[in-house]
Amino acid sequence: MADQLTRFRELRDKSLLGGGQDQIEKQHERGKHTARERIDLLLDPGTFSELGALAEHTKTDFGMDKKKFPGDGVVTGFGEIAGRPVGVYAQDFTILGGSFSQVQAQKINKIQDLCLQAGIPCIGLNDSGGARVQEGVYSLAAYGEVFVRNVLSSGVIPQISVIMGPCAGGAVYSPALTDFTIMVEGTSYMFLTGPGVVKSVTGEDVSTEELGGSTVHNAQSGVAQFAAPTEDDALELVRQILSYLPQNNTDDPQRYPSDDSPSRMDEELNAIVPADDNQGYSMIEVLERVFDTGSILQVHEQYARNAIVGFARLDGRPVGFVANNPLWMAGVLDIDSSDKISRFVRLCDVYNVPVITFVDCPGYLPGTQQEYGGVIRHGAKIIYAYCEATVPKIVVYTRKAVGGAYVALSSKQMRNDIAFAWPTAQIAVMGPDGAAPLVAGKQIKAAADPEKARAEFVAEYRETFYNPYRAADIGQVDEVIEARETRPRLIQALRVLETKVATSPHKKHGVIPS
Ligand code: HXC
User: Fold this and answer.
1) How far is the CA of 469 from the centre of ligand 1 (A)?
2) What integer best gives the mean pLDDT of the chain?
3) Fewer Cβ atoms within 10 Å of its own Cβ: the N or the C terminal residue of the chain?
4) In this model, does residue 323 exceed pLDDT 80?
């Protein structure tokens, strides 16, 4: 008995050391934590419960029988975040570069399966050289086992991927299938093929960072939703994200106590929209003044900055927001912002997070670049997402809601629940400059003073159409409110909508434009 216990303890201690002390030091020299250190930072102290600590691969080719380590390059188990259970797996780069083996996959699959069955979030910390070369097709097949679980879990339990080192080849598709990808700046990268292969195939010289670093995937490709300066920040972000989400799709997000008064008005908001239509203003400031103090977490912050999406709280209730950004391309909708908005609305919808949309948008961006890129099918995704969503949906028109942008961004007919407009709202088919030649071109040309005639038309158009009142006449706007009242109005509306029931026709799934 004593011998058995000793053997077990030796194995367990070996497992705790991963690939060995020298590998741990190398990992630290790279500026990276080990898998176990990361798990300790992620979870509530003392809550980690490991599974599969002693599992080893069974392969013998290429001397692999002499390269065995308990755990086989991934640490897996359960723990708690803010007192709520989660499943976690962390690839261990100190063991064979965290390379992905059949046994590693089985350990990850076990956690994925248990998370799905228990209805709890699943978090993956990625740091791996990809498919373990010595395992050949076993390793490739094992990726499929992870992907299928990612897909079956999608929309059922929150899945978050943190990239904390290499993530190359087909390995990138697991994070891409999860709800959120967080990248650590400077030490993480994702690409299908590395700089060497790129050079040999296309002749292009590109560094690892330029090809797949955090900035590329946050600001350009949109593959990642978050960038974190350090590993500690990345892990803290996971905790923050989960605070806005329920444990699973049958649950509601947790409400937190708020010391920001639900009846607080904000006088500054009444003056935030400039008199000049063409002048921008900070939509982030609007959001900060409306939502609970300090509660905003932007998602995809660096990507398609003409749109702003993210989570916040209203009287302690988590909400998702979508807003146009008048300070970036005048807040116009385009291909990338359509992808950003539609994905976020769908994410809120599956996790029962109400969506509040702030509209100041001149329309979809015209031009060949957008048309050739498929702005029609990308733009249609926004419409699809809002129409499909059954969570409470509230829209606030702060200024422009012009043409297609009015319809696409949570308009009444697309199952929006409540529409508020500020007195500065401009809801019309097009702006006065576009309307003038179409509606009164001939009269303006024939007038003794065409400039005066044009100015008179514009003034009349503004008075008649370019305001919130026509929309309010026919119920497209439920209520015109002072901007300062926005917070209490939204909170009252959300209280009513908390018990909203909306159903959609039964179907296997729809065919979202893509
Ligand atoms: C087996 C691997 C490995 C791999 C790394 N190692 N990647 N072993 N299979 N894929 C081992 C190394 O041999 C080394 O072992 C240890 O991990 C650390 O690796 P180093 O190269 O010394 O570290 P570093 O210099 O930091 O470079 C890390 C790296 C590099 C950039 C990730 O190892 C690398 O390029 N690896 C291959 C990446 C790759 O092309 N993967 C296949 C992707 S295709 P020792 O024993 O010396 O310490 C793919 C297909 C999936 O994944 C398809 C799914 C659909």
Assistant:
1) 63
2) 96
3) N
4) yes
